[in-house]
Each structure stands twice: as C-alpha cells, then as structure tokens.
Amino acid sequence: MDAFFAAIEERDHPELRGLPLVVGADPAQGKGRGVVSTANYAARRYGIHSALPISMAWRLSEKARQRGEPGAVFLGVNHRRYREVSERIMALVRRHAPLVEEASIDEAYFDLSRAGSFDRAAAICRQLKREIQDQERLTASIGLGPNKLVAKIASDFQKPDGLTIVTPEEAEAFLESLAVRKIPGIGPKAEARLARQGLRTVRDLKKFSPEELQGWFGKWGLELYERLRGRHEAPLQEEYEPKSVGEQETFSTDTLELQFLFDRLLHLCRHVRKRLLAEGFRACRTVVVTVRFADFDTRSRSHTLAAATAALDRLQFFAMKLFMPFLDRRENPRKKRIRLIGVRLEKLEK
DNA sequence: TCTGGGGTCCTAGGACCC
DNA sequence: TCTGGGGTCCTAGGACCC
What we know:
41% of the residues lie in helices and 21% in strands. The chain is an alpha+beta fold. The longest helix has 21 residues, at 258-278. The two termini are 33 Å apart. The protein binds a DNA duplex through helix 3, helix 8, strand 8, strand 10 and strand 11.
C-alpha cells in the first residue's frame, strides 16, 4: 500500500486532501520525541519521510510555512483503524490467490502461479488494484516476479499506484543497475561499508565470489550471492508463530526517579503478560529487560528460568532483578538518566 | 535534527556435557 | 605438562525490516 497510514487519514478527512500530512509521534511544537510513521507525498516534497525525528519534521514544516507554502498537518497513529482497513484489503487479495503471506500491515505476497502466464497474472494484478481503488479509495503498488525477492523489489520500483512486471528472463538484468540498498537485507551499515570500497550497484557486487561475500557478511554472504542474481527460494508462508512478545516505553523526559521507573517496569510486565496470554501462549521461560540511557547507550539483561511461567509476580520479580543492576554505581557510575525501559518475553510455550 | 515500537536473525564467548 | 573435538544452551549486542 502506498503511504498507507497517511493515505487512510487523507481519505477519511476530506478537508485535509492535498495538504502535506504527517502521521506519527506528537510534535509538541517541535519539542516532541519519537519519529514520523508515514508522510504523504505532499509532505515528502518537504523532505519529510518515515523514521525521521518528529522534531525535524516540525522544523521542515515551519520552513515551508516561511516560504509561503502550507505547513504540514500532524496526526497521531490510529493503529486500530489501519488494522481494519488492512484486513479488508487482505480479504480482497485472498479472492485472487490460494496462498497469501501477510508480510506486514500494508504488504503481502500472493502466489499467482496458477494463472499460468505472466500476462494473465498481470491482468489479475490490474484487477486487484482496481478493486482496492473502487472499494477503499486507496492505491497500491504491485510487483510481479518469479519469486518473493524480485516481486518485492519490483513493487517498490514505480510508486505510487505502480505495477511492475519482471519475468524470469528479465530478472537478473532488472536487478543489475539497482543500488545495493534495494536488496532486502542490505541496510544503512552494509551500504556505507560497501560505498567506502566504491561498490554501489548490484552489478558492482556481482564481481565477487560466494566465498568473498561470505568473508565480508558471514553466512548471509552466501544468501546475498544468490539474491544479487535474482535467485530466492523462500516459499510463501501463510502463518507463523511469534517467537517473542515485548513492549518498550520511551519517557517524555529522561529520569532517575525510582518510584516512576519501578512503576513503569511493573506495568510493562502486566501488559506484556496479558498479550502473551492473548496470543494463546501458556507461559515463557526467558525474561529480557532493556534500558536505554539518555545518551542512547542501550543495554539488555536476560534470565532464563528452569521452568516456564506466566505468573505475574514471578515475571515482575525477575524483571526487577534484571533491572536493579542498571541503577548500581558500577553499572551507571555517571548517574545517567534513563530514557527507555523495555520488557520482552521469549522461549514461549503453547 | 536527535533519534518510536514491534519484531527476526546472526554472531561470539563461555559454561557444560560426552 | 599442557591440554581434542563435537555439540547444546545461555547471554549480550547489533543489523535489519516495517
């Protein structure tokens, strides 16, 4: 889906149409914490994009206002609403494909191999885009390819409202001229590392052997060698079981107030436990507590129990036990304030 | 400009077992 | 005197994705 959260808000608030729109954290007059979740295309023209600090988005919007352009409208995230819309769209997709993998709230893979040809599959994609437009007044971008990797990259190739078709014969050439960053799994760090060696495109990276890539990237290097050539065997996965559930909370101001910190930690335990049970799990064996200090130094401690538990007092006991050392002189000698606390449960049992 | 929240997977060292 | 090899589990951190 194209700029999904922002597109839903724009659709549901006609008075906002055409204005730059930012969905994300509260900007609090430029002093807010948090980031942009989604910006619509008008806001992107100001340089506002996903994951940008909301304070920066605010600044960019103010600058635009000074130039005489409209300032951006900032909205909070209405996750429940987006989930509803997502479910209706996924249902539309399911009418066309026997196998659908919901990759995220606004992204799915679906298997059209039964269509028998790329032409017939492309016709189905056009039909689906029409249905999404007619029934939801939203646009989607679709990539059609011989596997999930190529389809995903193709879906991103022409946005918004795009349809990009890449046949098996075209796949390798299609990838060659792209930036390495377009390959899922190559993130900012790997991109920068490669750029330092003058390697920018898929073509540049294809000069190296599997062993060389393995030397740089470990196990993932072998997988990367295949991906650079458009090869990807991963099957569609209808559903999968979560391996962990967790929650974290960034405070509006960094603090060392013990009563407050304990209170938030215990509350996170309650909430995470509730979600664990709601997901259909009976218990867990590992508790992880994360602390982020004011300087963004982020640490975690974990404890694995001999026997699984879901008893709130046990979870809270271990969470406290894991948390306390962060307050200790040795662990935090400069008395850094705490910015975030997180609790995660792992080794889940059904 | 100052960095959310929900996750997954990989690596590396150490303990421990046979 | 100086110590193999294979394996599993736990812990901590980091890269990456949406």
